[in-house]
Amino acid sequence: MAYTETTKTGYGTRLGNSLKGIIVGLAFFAAGTGMLFWNEGNFVKNKKALEEGQNIVVPVTDVSKIDSNLNGKFIHASAMADTKDTLTDDLLGVKENSVKLNRKVEYYQWVEKSKTETKDKIGGSEEKKTTYTYEKKWTNEPINSSEFKDPFYQNKNFIIENIESQEIQSENVSFGAYKLPNFIISSIEGSTPAKISLDSEKQKIWNDKILKNTGHTNTVTPTDTTKTMMLAINNNVAYIGKSSSNPQIGDVRITVVKTEPAVISILAKVNGSTFEPYVAKNGKEVSEVAQGTVSAENMFATAHSNNSTLNWIFRIAGMFFVIFGLKMMFSIVETLFKVLPFLSNIVGAGVGLVVTIVGFVWSLLIITISWLFYRPIIAITLLAVVAGAIFYLKKRAKEKVSANAIPNTKPLESVQ
At a CB cut-off of 8 Å and minimum separation 6, what does 39 contact? Predict the structure, then answer.
């Protein structure tokens, strides 16, 4: 069942909000401009650092022994990332020989969603109608339902047990005769179910605690049927509630996975018996980790591709910030015409089109300026090509006009 809330905002308030929006818009515009300029420089620096690494990388086929000749060199190697450590999660009785151990906790909760529709009124006021709907979902965090808009759903959320998610990482992971540092270990991927093993005594402690919690919730008074709540274990999943096939509000689901020893490939600088990122001349760090046996060429190709993708993500984000900022800065123009909604719609569409074009052109200008700063040769070449194209088009246009011009003729003599 949906819950609707209607609010009205007067014309004066809307004008005041638009004036405040100028400041906010200016902040977005400045942030977008700075992001666009920084992004191009960051892309170029990362690209040069990767190219520098490609030129000096040393392929190493055997890491079974520490080679002092490799100390301080940027290498590529593939080997088993192995460990003898046993990682434990005492909460659930998990003990695994693994590189990483991850506990993911989810809560079954009511989730509030909203959809807002606005309508301009003659005279400049605005009517805003917000519809709130609610659905049950698994979430990563408990949701505070006391702030829900619909009184019926307020304070309906609770949790049987509050458990933190966590990731445990092995401190001793070998790579042949070398020891992997934390920044490489954290990049190792892999997700295999970890076995949850609780003896009968620990299981009883859990169930007693659950029954106690369900009998003393601070938001909902449980019914007698909640006495059946308990901890159920199925391989790597622990479920706190009545039935995992029919989840109820407050139920908790815990999933434990491990990252097992596996073959990885690395690009890193040797530092004694371990590794560290290679620092390029421009100060950028270079280090890569790939699952399995991957060649240096493919690892660098992937790194270049990721750098390019990140560059475009920031470009689009920067353009959006610039255009959004301009729209907020000039929203006052549309608001001034809100006294006549049909007229404000026309003005708003025109302002939106203009600021979009201006924002796009401004973004291209900033990118061009940053290229002049970070990639002057490419930028100057492109500007020369553009200037040449403009000159050529103008010349062709003049020639076409001359060719189509009406030739001069003498006026006809009047008949006497």
Answer: 311, 314, 315, 318, 370
252 vs 244: CA distance, rounded Å: 9
Whether residue 73 contacts residue 79, with contact meaning beta carbons closer than 8 Å, is answered with: no
DSSP annotation of 62 reads -
Q: Is residue 73 part of a domain?
A: no
Provide the sign of the torsion angle of the four alpha carbons 199, 205, 211, 214, taken in this order.
negative
The CA distance from 144 to 107, in Å, is 12
Torsion of CA 34, 39, 40, 41, to 10 degrees: 90
Assess contact for 331 and 352: CB atoms under 8 A.
no
Q: Give this prediction's pTM.
A: 0.80
pLDDT digits (tens, 9 = 90+) for 294-309: 999 999 999 999 999 9
CB 254 within 8 A of CB 274: no
d(CA 300, CA 284) in angstroms, rounded, equals 15
Show the low-confidence residues of the chain (pLDDT under 50).
Answer: 216-227, 414-416
**Residue numbers of the domain that contains 322:** 3-47+309-400
| Number of structural domains the chain divides into | 2
Question: Where does a domain end: 260, 290, 317?
Answer: 260
- Same domain for 222 and 340: no
Residue 78 DSSP one-character state: E
pLDDT of residue 231: 87
Radius of gyration of the chain (CA): 33
Residues 89, 43 within the same domain: no
Query: Is residue 280 helix, strand or coil?
Result: coil
d(CA 75, CA 266): 8
159 and 109 in a single domain? The answer is yes
